[in-house]
Amino acid sequence: xxxxxxxxxxxxxxxxxxxxxxxxxxxxxxxxxxxxxxxxxxxxxxxxxxxxxxxxxxxxxxxxxxxxxxxxxxxxxxxxxxxxxxxxxxxxxxxxxxxxxxxxxxxxxxxxxxxxxxxxxxxxxxxxxxxxxxxxxxxxxxxxxxxxx
Length: 149
Known about the structure:
By secondary structure, this protein is of the alpha+beta class. Helices cover 52% and strands 11% of the residues. The chain has helices at 16-27, 44-49, 69-79, 91-117, 120-141, and strands spanning 7-11, 33-36, 58-61, 64-67. Strands 2-1-3-4 form a 4-stranded mixed β-sheet, with helices on one face. A hairpin with a 2-residue loop joins strand 3 (58-61) and strand 4 (64-67). The relative contact order is 0.12.
């Protein structure tokens, strides 16, 4: 069993990317120390642990740093492999799961940012795109009991 005594997550509470990591940690029942970052005044620890991108989330496991939410989730799944896996064993089903993760990153995140940061016609276009994306997701979810499962 992997040692989860030395797990620290540098994050910002509202970040969807941080939420992805927090869900992964919860699903694997990994105990960790949560450190909320002030993104306008980044901590020395964040700048030291992620000197390339200087952004959250950052997972620190036994002094080793893992950055970028999808990479962190993959790391968690590989290190704590004795706990229920995140990905299906079938290669095609894994590819489909990766497709939908990519879809969420590209089609949900960016329109939601535009929705929150624009006004007028640009915001209305973002709102339309946002609802179209959720119609697609609803169509996928409506066909089965579990998403991609």
